[in-house]
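Archive maintenance. Older records in this collection stored only the sequence; we are now back-filling the structure field for every entry so that each record is complete. The fields below show one back-filled record exactly as it appears after the update. Entries are processed alphabetically, and TraB family protein is next in the queue.

ARCHIVE ENTRY
Title: TraB family protein
Organism field: Tsuneonella deserti
Length field: 280
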Amino acid sequence: MALASCGKDGRADIPPPSPALWHVTAPDGRSAGWLFGTIHALPEDARWRTPAIEKAIVDADLLVVEAKDLEDTGKLAATFTRLSHTPEQPALSERVPASLQDRLRRLLAKGGYREADFKAIETWAAAIMLAQLADDSIGENGVDRALLKDFKARPVEELEGVEGQFRIFDTLPEADQRDLLGAVVEEDTMDASDSARLAKLWLKGDMDAIAREGDEGMLADPELKQALLINRNRLWADKLLALYAAGKRPLVAVGAAHLAPPEGLPELLAAKGYRVSRVR
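Back-filled structure field:
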């Protein structure tokens, strides 16, 4: 969610594409695959494919993504509904600080919601629903969807899957869920220039700047950052090590924030003896 939105506006001054791509070499010198930081949407005419990325797509044995059923909207909706509904939830306004209640009311009005619509919606799910209202991106122009099409005739594995991703939020303590909701309400002020700026950072492959973005907003909360970023990175690194040990050469395409220092996948794999080199 930290880098989820890149708006339709701000297409001018789109930089030449140089998204962050790494080559992974095993301790024995064998090529083990690639790491690619993705973004879920871009301006319509933004070009992101470079010769190095195209080569990685062709040479990889398989694609590894966070979740592969992005086009199955029925599955997404059914899973979200099953995990998000619990009767007799507190009023939504009681789940944010008093200082954010005016912003919450405006955000609800923006989405055509009533507070009563959330009486059976868990706090994390309300945060995700309201986050969509601030997202003016074009999901169909997302890098993850494009890669899934590139690999439609080759193996695709997922690190979490749709249900696994929702369960990460569903198992957060209520206090952390409320922090998440508060961050979403507070960040609704992000405008088109902000989302265009994020798109440019991604296209430039500026991982230091992306890392700084990860220290702001909802990820400025230490508990949320631990649950939504750091813990997941560590679990993913273990899964990748198992794939490498099996002789696979995957193209691993996950949200760019998961590859940013200091505890991104490149650093975690390097700590296990792998050489992870940025491809220019």
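Update note: The beta strands are 21-25, 31-38, 62-65, 156-158, 250-255, 275-278. Residues 1-12 have pLDDT under 50 and may be disordered.
Entry marked complete.
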